[in-house]
Amino acid sequence: MFDLAVFGSLFLTLFVIMDPPGVTPIFLALTSGRPAKAQRKMAFQAVCVAFGVIAVFGLLGHQILDYLHVSVPALMIAGGLLLLLIALDLLTGKTDEPKQTKDVNVALVPLGMPLLAGPGAIVSVILAVQKADSVGTQLSVWAAIVAIHLVLWVVMRYSLLIIRVIKDGGVVLVTRLAGMMLSAIAVQQVINGVTQVIQGA
């Protein structure tokens, strides 16, 4: 039987971690300067990549990490460092250079992973799948995963309307703001990873 409590708990957890409202300025900054059609495509691709990564780790998470001899804190630190590099590009304006943005599909990295499908979301899904001990709870877990990705797609898809209002000057401002937010997220991920390593030791 479908478990509404499990669905609500995981959905809220992933909503806080994946942060659809917070992703909006970062998405706008990384996709600015592209045609609207390309931006819509990238929003869809980012959500598909994130869902694919989350689904794989939901099904085979522990096996993958054990096989690679990678701990969860290591995954968190690596993801944080990768996000920090992207954040520095946003803050210094390097993403304004055509060579860097036009030829690279940011929907895959960093949007799809590790921004959306980051260590926090991956670990939450692995634990939720492990705890689901019946068909109903498993169904609730996967329904929550699908629902949060639908929310992410809708938010990014319609955030493109913001670009038409704020114009080029606003995009630059949003880019710098996104860089600050992303750097804070990245540093927090590294701190969380280091803290878990220290606690484990």
UniProtKB/TrEMBL annotation:
| Bilayer-crossing regions | 6-30, 42-65, 71-92, 104-129, 141-163, 170-191
- Name the family the entry cites: Belongs to the UPF0056 (MarC) family.
Q: Where in the cell is it found?
A: Cell membrane
Q: Cross-referenced Pfam families, in alphabetical order?
A: MarC
Q: How does it sit in the membrane?
A: Multi-pass membrane protein
- Show the NCBIfam families listed in the entry: NAAT family transporter
Keywords in alphabetical order, please.
Answer: Cell membrane, Membrane, Transmembrane, Transmembrane helix
GO cellular-component term (any): plasma membrane
Q: What is this protein called?
A: UPF0056 membrane protein
InterPro entries to which the protein is assigned, alphabetical: Multi_antbiot-R_MarC (IPR002771)
